[in-house]
Amino acid sequence: MIKGLTRDGLGNLKNLETHIILAAKNDIDVVDTDGNALRELIEAKGIEGAKQFLQENQVQIGAIQFPVDWRNSDDAFYNDLPDLLEDAKIAKAFGCKIFNTFFMPSTDQDPLQHLMKLTNRIKICAQMIKGYGCNIALEFVGPYHMRKLFKNEFIWDLPTTLEWIDMIGEPNVGVLLDSIHWYTSGGKIEDITAIDPAKIAYVHINDGPELPRKEILDNGRLYPGEGIIDLVGFLKALKDVGYAGVVSQEVLTEKEPVESSEILAERSGQAMAEVFVKAGLQ
Amino acid sequence: MIKGLTRDGLGNLKNLETHIILAAKNDIDVVDTDGNALRELIEAKGIEGAKQFLQENQVQIGAIQFPVDWRNSDDAFYNDLPDLLEDAKIAKAFGCKIFNTFFMPSTDQDPLQHLMKLTNRIKICAQMIKGYGCNIALEFVGPYHMRKLFKNEFIWDLPTTLEWIDMIGEPNVGVLLDSIHWYTSGGKIEDITAIDPAKIAYVHINDGPELPRKEILDNGRLYPGEGIIDLVGFLKALKDVGYAGVVSQEVLTEKEPVESSEILAERSGQAMAEVFVKAGLQ
Amino acid sequence: MIKGLTRDGLGNLKNLETHIILAAKNDIDVVDTDGNALRELIEAKGIEGAKQFLQENQVQIGAIQFPVDWRNSDDAFYNDLPDLLEDAKIAKAFGCKIFNTFFMPSTDQDPLQHLMKLTNRIKICAQMIKGYGCNIALEFVGPYHMRKLFKNEFIWDLPTTLEWIDMIGEPNVGVLLDSIHWYTSGGKIEDITAIDPAKIAYVHINDGPELPRKEILDNGRLYPGEGIIDLVGFLKALKDVGYAGVVSQEVLTEKEPVESSEILAERSGQAMAEVFVKAGLQ
Amino acid sequence: MIKGLTRDGLGNLKNLETHIILAAKNDIDVVDTDGNALRELIEAKGIEGAKQFLQENQVQIGAIQFPVDWRNSDDAFYNDLPDLLEDAKIAKAFGCKIFNTFFMPSTDQDPLQHLMKLTNRIKICAQMIKGYGCNIALEFVGPYHMRKLFKNEFIWDLPTTLEWIDMIGEPNVGVLLDSIHWYTSGGKIEDITAIDPAKIAYVHINDGPELPRKEILDNGRLYPGEGIIDLVGFLKALKDVGYAGVVSQEVLTEKEPVESSEILAERSGQAMAEVFVKAGLQ
């Protein structure tokens, strides 16, 4: 498996350049970013310079944030589609094959109509980026308070997300499996070992505090190994099933950490290394 | 538009042969039946004899009942798929292009999972019969008491059914629009005139008693023109939108009518003729 | 059926405003144009003014030229996709549901790879414009010299185009049936009466000179009724099959006609009126 | 990677029971068979007995032969579809997820129409078996004499097969990569390392004699390591790309080998073991 770092958990990160350097220093293989950060890097170094910089640091772009607002109005959705083409072009230039996006586990819309709308939109986007070799990683959101945020529950666990991906029927759409969403949604190890690895597009890793499952908050995450989630079992299950992709740390916290990005990246690198070793991954 | 007769409203109909003769006598163009009745007719007359009999009576097969239990278990569904192939072969032999089926407006299942399951199954069936030139006409069920029959509401009106058909995305799946379901679901003339006629696979016609909309029962239907539904407006809207297919009478009643099929067929023919004339269709 | 006018056959047409006025004067219901002409009209009159102008003239926008170069390189294709979104927005604003495009009947590419590439691209575009209520009308090109223009023959007749549309599998992709392509590809009346009308997205009408079929040139077309194509049979077959959409005149000529647009539009209107009357359409 | 054995290369194999025993004895993990052989095993041992027998031998069912004649007439195709449902049920019962099938590299049909027909059929089958968790592994056939067997060339190499699978667009359709087809079609290591491993459904391994590429015959195969194909490079490339599925020996020969199945299985097991070791797989 490949170690990755999102920006969440690195504090006030200056820019993508710093992100890459910190990843390299702490034995991380890929960074997750967005189209704008990549464009900024290209402005600073040129496209070839940017690629060379990544190569020198032996870091790759793991995933790019999906630039399309696909969960709200039709207007918002269609207005963003040209951005998707732009970002897919950049993704291809950097050899990045994954766009990450999540969907809320509750909605004020009628859930059936919401599902139909979202399905249509994801299909459109999947088709549009297929030619660039890009995939969409769909992240379900597990925490109980998020399921209650809007009037009606929507999809919020792994098995139902996989059923949805199956219905979407586009080969380049898979699940983004995040340990805290898996845990808070009542996920079991067997839910992971039952997956066809081709359906797992990306993995996020983070930990949760010692609280009843229903009280864990989406932005109350801990660094891997600092909480109570069985991350070793989580990673072993992914290994057993044949997943060989990225496992990227994403630590959302209510308040931004006070430590410097350097210190946070070191802490992240150590946390990742430890949990990988315990899971027999390195 | 083409006039059709289902078996519902014709009392204790002996067999398909009688069905065809009664249609012919009462100026009806097509009959709706099922694979078994067609097989029985073929046994009696041979395939060529059956076709000739239809031709002599100037009656065609309008639609065949979908032979697949697609609304319950996976086992039931897959067990029925060979029957679909059999019936599609027969449909093709008779030049019939439509399979009719309905879905319940409520379910004991989780509605989102129900939607995903049903979508997958309809896609499979649509693909399987495509090569035979066959289409699936999906009928939503409007009466209020049916929406409350099971724990959770599912899809029960025209606009949402069309959204579903759009998501299913198979060119040979359209809506079966039934006047009583349209009326009881609160349908408006504008809902019909907004449809792309290519999405209307079939039409059922029948009337409803003078009761509040929510009290009309699924099996409390009347012959066209005997009730309070604006069937003239209904047909005119279909004409305006360019629909040129079948409009088939289907009168479900709690108790089977006591009159003979001959009398009921005459009553049906007259009812259909009158409402067609009033709508300017003939 | 609805009478339409493309720009081909109207000589040096000043702009869309003139196009609309000439259509109105000559009893034509719709005009076929492109996104740029519509934008120019909007600049001149505002969006509401443009709509009002159409309404006053009782003319509608029948079809818009597909703004995507989908027959060449991947780069060209992807660069044009944002334009498709722009034009779909405009199409929707004007209630226009059709994008017209053609494909060449020969290619220098490997035909199998060409088919796969073009299929993928049309699917992407069909998905992108579906939410705007728009359809793609795919026009095959029949003239013999065009089949020999490039190294390998591709698709050039109605039955194979329909097979392709079937394989594309998008409900909003249909055939654009042009009388000269039908004639030069050896089309028969029975090829038309065999079509499901839902698969016909648009119709072009024009005539061909008294030459052997293989010698008729793509840009050697005549006004309807001035040549040897059985346009009355063509239109009757479309009527029989239930087609109720647009039949739009498109007269491509090697040299631009010397007459004024006014005279050419009158000639077009008369030609269209005559052939419609002969086919029993009005 | 997982070691597999087809029946080709094992001589006059008595039945599936023997197939399983010989696999077990020679350190092979899975056997490739067909629905009939599985039914025979079930008749002999009962379904639970059959599963237990496999478990005791620590052998699994790797792939089942696709029971559908999908390359010829519509009738043949549709007649076989019920068999596919039967075999998918059996596959699921044994935890087997792969149906193997090949397509000829030449055809007497028009290649474009052939491609469209085959695409439609594979889509139908892929949809039908999806609910059983089954996938289709599509095998291209490389030898030059096979490309010339019929009038027109069809698809016969890896990159074009992948384009086709992409166009088919069903997540449960992938490529069956066979070393002799890869070699004779002019395949390079880079063609393998360029693949998304999720697109590789199955792998066949065998060797070819020291002949010019164009002279190697489809039924002139050798056991792995006995010929000139760079099988170590082949397997290393598969490993590099992340393929973790089955590599199954398939040695088609003009005449059935004279040795006993026991001796041939031993020879196969040794050949597989050696090439796996050389590729660093064990």
Please render the helix and strand layout as text.
The structure is a homotetramer of 282-residue chains.
Chain A: E1 2-5, H1 16-25, E2 30-33, H2 35-56, E3 60-65, H3 74-93, E4 98-102, E5 106-107, H4 111-130, E6 135-139, H5 144-147, E7 152-153, H6 158-168, E8 173-178, H7 179-184, H8 189-193, E9 200-205, H9 231-240, E10 246-249, H10 261-278
Helix pairs in contact in A: 2-3, 3-4
- Mean pLDDT across all residues of chain A, rounded? 97
Relative strand content of chain A? 15-25%
How many domains is the backbone of chain A divided into? 1
Report the oligomer: homotetramer
**CATH overall fold name of chain A:** TIM Barrel
Distance between the termini of chain A: 9 Å
- Label the structural class of chain A: alpha/beta
Radius of gyration of chain A: 18 Å
- What proportion of the residues of chain A is helical, as a percent range? 40-55%
Global shape of chain A: globular
Largest sheet of chain A: 8 strands, parallel, barrel
Sketch the topology of chain A as an H/E string, one letter per element. Answer: EHEHEHEEHEHEHEHHEHEH
Count of extended strands of chain A: 10
Briefly, what CATH class of chain A? Answer: Alpha Beta
Main interface by residue count: A-B, 17 and 17 residues
Total of helices of chain A: 10
- The CATH superfamily of chain A turns out to be Divalent-metal-dependent TIM barrel enzymes
Low-confidence stretches of chain A: none
CATH architecture of chain A: Alpha-Beta Barrel
Strand order of the largest sheet of chain A: 1-2-3-4-6-8-9-10
